[in-house]
Write a structure and sequence with these properties.
428 residues; alpha+beta; Rieske Iron-sulfur Protein; Naphthalene 1,2-dioxygenase Alpha Subunit, Chain A, domain 1; 4-stranded antiparallel sheet; 9 helices
């Protein structure tokens, strides 16, 4: 009998795929999703297979692997990935899996190596993935060339690194071009990570993103953040007041004169870039609203540049100011577990203790992240109840959440083999 391969097995999620497509086709638009989307293990497995293993994911920053041999690792569900800089500055990504018996090659989060060496049996790989050494015990006929590391799609732009585990990943060129344009004044080749944190949230990843996509909750939850942040989402926010619109117009004229990109750019519902003003008299997301770093980023002429907001679904939002930037990465760990990683970026030449104090730089978003964690976890606890049923979103306060849920529903349907036009939504 021929050995059974995974490809010959019935899909253990076949019934879940059908049920998920039916729920998405029947969902009420402008309402939260049915309960299984937030706590069911089978549906979480579909999220990982059809969203996180197929879409482009924000992985990290190019400044984290500045030199040949620098690497970083991350896990996409059960898939460990390594990103490494090789010859001539080229960036490679591979499944972090030895081709011998499958052990992880690199076990640390970051590091620097001359070669990639498996700690189990010392199989050795070049930084471009070629197998160089497998020991003499493999026999004279062993073909090294047949056992190189398995590649992962990787792209970089504007200092960002994106990966996709898909065989044929979706188009991303338009977004990468936009990143290069908006971040050109920040000179992203000359930034560094000044501080970093990771927090575990006992909530489904979609609840983490939903919470981020609205500021409906901000006035009751985020006193530190609202010392500087306008609660309006972008210049097209339907709630914007005449005073805010006047401020936007005045600031846009100043930014235009400085040659700093500011125009709202939407690339479908997946990506958005926009520069919006902070509160009058503030220039940075710090407790006092003043610069957290004395040395401005890149070639920026002023600290008073509002905040450049960048959204990339499914797993990142970002805030760029004149003096520093804050980037966020969301990675699901389980149906009700999500890790949120935050990195604070400053100019490469900024000196800790002289130009910036990491504790001061972090204070606002450390507080905000913990507040958001509690909100998402309480949201999850309520959704787990038998009393939960999908509730209505506000079309003015929560339009960003509506856009996210629409994107998620359409993407999941399409990746499940049900094209978006089959989505039959019932208006609430």
């Amino acid at each position: 009998m021929d050995p059974i391969s995974p490809a010959h097995l019935d899909d253990p999620l076949a019934s879940a795929r059908k049920a998920t497509a039916e729920m998405l086709n029947q969902r009420r638009r402008h309402f939260s999703l049915p309960q299984p989307f937030y706590n069911d293990a089978r549906l979480f497995a579909l999220d990982m297979q059809e969203i996180f293993e197929k879409e482009w994911l924000f992985a990290g920053m190019t400044c984290e692997i500045p030199l040949k041999g620098n690497y970083m690792t991350l896990d996409v569900g059960d898939n460990p990935v390594i990103i490494v800089r090789g010859d001539n500055g080229r960036i490679h990504a591979f499944h972090n899996v030895c081709r011998h018996r499958g052990s992880r090659l690199c076990t640390g989060d970051k590091g620097k190596v001359a070669k990639l060496v498996c700690p189990y049996h010392q199989w050795t790989y070049e930084l471009d993935g070629r197998l160089l050494f497998a020991g003499s015990d493999m026999g004279a006929a062993f073909d090294l060339a047949a056992y190189g590391l398995k590649p992962v799609n990787v792209r970089s732009a504007g200092g960002y690194l994106f990966i996709s585990l898909a065989d044929a990943p979706p188009a991303i060129d338009d977004f990468l071009e936009s990143l290069e344009h908006y971040l050109a004044p920040y000179d992203m080749d000359n930034v560094k990570v000044a501080a970093e944190s990771s927090i575990l949230e006992h909530a489904n990843w979609k609840l983490v993103i939903e919470n981020n996509r609205e500021c409906y909750h901000c006035s009751g939850a985020h006193p530190e953040l609202l010392n500087s942040l306008q609660e309006f989402d972008d210049s097209d926010d339907p709630r914007a007041t005449p005073a805010y619109r006047a401020l936007v117009s005045r600031k846009q004229q100043q930014w235009e004169a400085m040659g700093v990109p500011w125009k709202l750019s939407r690339l479908g519902k997946r990506n958005r870039l926009t520069r919006t003003p902070l509160l009058e008299g503030t220039v940075s997301m710090t407790v006092d609203g003043q610069p957290g770093c004395r040395k401005l980023m890149g070639r920026l002429p002023s600290a008073d540049l509002g905040v450049l907001r960048i959204l990339h679904l499914p797993n990142s939002w970002n805030h760029f100011m004149g003096d520093h930037a804050v980037v966020f990465r969301v990675m699901p760990l389980g149906p009700q577990q999500t890790v949120v990683t935050t990195k604070w970026l400053v100019h490469q030449d900024a000196v800790e203790g002289v130009d910036y104090d990491p504790a001061h730089l972090r204070r606002v978003w450390d507080a905000t992240n913990q507040q958001d964690r509690r909100l998402a976890e309480e949201n999850q606890r309520g959704i787990n109840s038998r009393g939960y049923e999908p509730g209505p979103y506000s079309e003015t306060f929560e339009f960003g959440v509506i856009d996210f849920i629409d994107w998620y529903s359409e993407s999941l349907l399409e990746n499940l083999g049900h094209t978006a036009p089959h989505l039959r939504v019932v208006e609430g």
